Amino acid sequence: MSVPTELGYTAKHEWVLVKDGVATVGITSFATEALGDIVFVEVPEVGTEVTLDDPVGEVESTKSVSDIYSPVKGEVVEINESLEDSPETINSAPYGDGWLFRVRISEDPTGLLSAEEYTKLTEGEE
């Protein structure tokens, strides 16, 4: 399982990359492997205010439905519209084209795990 070192992670299996005050959010490859084939994704609408650790959407797979939690606080400024027609992109490129949404952060994220910390966390869950 690859865990990119430039990202921050949550214990709920979201990843975040903050650049120029905007956080790109997705779910980890660990999560996609646990979910199986993703068939539908619901993300917050542009303009939605999100709060740290609040559920903001869902990912539906052939195995289950899982909540998506916001790893940051701020306003949603962009969603990955291509996922509406191709949700399986999350499985094939969770850290690339499978990103979920972008948030203009209102405060710096806290409590994110490093790649090393996230790897240790998931080793106990496999």
UniProtKB/TrEMBL annotation:
Alphabetized SUPFAM superfamilies for the sequence: Single hybrid motif
Is-annotated flag, keyword Manganese? Answer: no
Record keywords, A-Z: Lipoyl
The answer to whether keyword Plastid applies is no
Cofactor entry:
(R)-lipoate
Looking up Pfam families in the UniProt record yields: GCV_H
**This protein's GO CC annotations:** cytosol; glycine cleavage complex
- Where in the numbering of this chain does the Lipoyl-binding domain appear? 22-104
As to how many cofactors bind and how, the note says:
Binds 1 lipoyl cofactor covalently.
Q: Which residues carry this modification: N6-lipoyllysine?
A: K63
InterPro entries xrefs: 2-oxoA_DH_lipoyl-BS (IPR003016), Biotin_lipoyl (IPR000089), GCV_H (IPR002930), GCV_H/Fam206 (IPR033753), GCV_H_sub (IPR017453), Single_hybrid_motif (IPR011053)
Q: Name one GO biological process term.
A: protein lipoylation
Q: Which domain of life is it from?
A: Bacteria
Give the UniProt family note.
Belongs to the GcvH family.
Q: How does it assemble?
A: The glycine cleavage system is composed of four proteins: P, T, L and H.
Which NCBIfam families does this UniProt record tie to the protein? gcvH (TIGR00527), PRK01202.1 (NF002270)
Tell me the function of this protein: The glycine cleavage system catalyzes the degradation of glycine. The H protein shuttles the methylamine group of glycine from the P protein to the T protein.
Supply the name of the protein.
Answer: Glycine cleavage system H protein
